[in-house]
Amino acid sequence: MPWGMRLFRFVIICILAATAANQPLAAQTAPPRRLSLTVAPELLVPTAPRQPVSAAMHPAAKGALIGGAAGAAFVGAVGLWYCTIGPNEVGECENPRWFWKGLALYGGAGAGIGALIGAIVDRR
User: Fold this and answer.
1) How many CB atoms are closer than 10 A to CB 52?
2) 92-116: string of b/e by CB count within 10 Å (b at 16+)?
3) pLDDT band at 110 (very low <50, low <70, confident <90, very high)
4) I want to staple 68 with a disulfide (CB 3.0 to 4.6 A). Which of 15, 30, 58, 111 is the partner?
5) What is the pLDDT of residues 75-90, one digit of tens each?
6) What are the distances in angstroms from CA 66 to CA 15, 25, 28, 57, 75?
7) What is the pLDDT of residue 35?
8) Which of these, 124, 13, 121, lies nearest to 59 by C-alpha position?
9) pTM of the full structure
């Protein structure tokens, strides 16, 4: 088994163990709750609906997220095609480092272009 998979499995097991250990401790340290019969004032007056997170984000930030995801998805799709049914040579896809570098490069370029487009669109 490659060392990367061992590390990945170790991290998952540690997260699960920490979560399982945290639950009983949190249940023991919680103060007892008492029944309250008073009505909170915020329940009597309706509050304004909250905006979704995407509406609160700046257009350049939304463009960066969308562009980064599109750039990384493009490299992922082309890399998957090239290494499975594409015209690759024997042993060419053995080292996945080129794939991760491509994801970072095209994701970053897509994020930059998306942020630029979002900033241009925002200028009304």
Assistant:
1) 8
2) eeeeeeebeebbeebbeebbebbbe
3) very high
4) 111
5) 999 988 988 888 888 8
6) 30, 40, 44, 12, 14
7) 63
8) 121
9) 0.54
